[in-house]
Write a structure and sequence with these properties.
155 residues, alpha+beta, 6-stranded antiparallel beta sheet, 5 helices, 37% helix
Length: 155
Amino acid sequence: MKDYSKQAEESLKKYSDFLEAQGCGKMEMFHNLLAEFNGTPYVWGDETTESSDCSGTVCASLNALYKKNIRVTADSLYRNYFTVPAEDYDGIQAAFFLNNEGKAVHVAGYMGKGLFMNESSLEEHGGTPRTLTELKRIYSPFLFTRRKLKEGKWA
């Protein structure tokens, strides 16, 4: 990991500590941590606010929230961590886009107020908050599903 990436990772964790000290709950903290990726350039395989891909954005936000260091793909997030169907907007959740074989090929973390942080090479300005309608249009060839983080799975 590059030095500036390590600094960006530490900065995100400090922001998480600040949010916790302010009395924010885990869901609100996750929303705020995702917002830190607004404008972050897309770089496949990266996971900091300096550069990130879709799963890196979600993993880095969860890592800052739970003080972990886990890095997995969008498909692994879908299969192993976000396993509870989302019927409302309570809890930590994400939108997943599946190919015709059922593999998650994209993830966008839910950041509250009807917006998802979309970190994608398709975004002109890097990480961009998008509505569900916008995401479904951008990723129209893929099957959409929304899931919650299973309680205690990342913690």
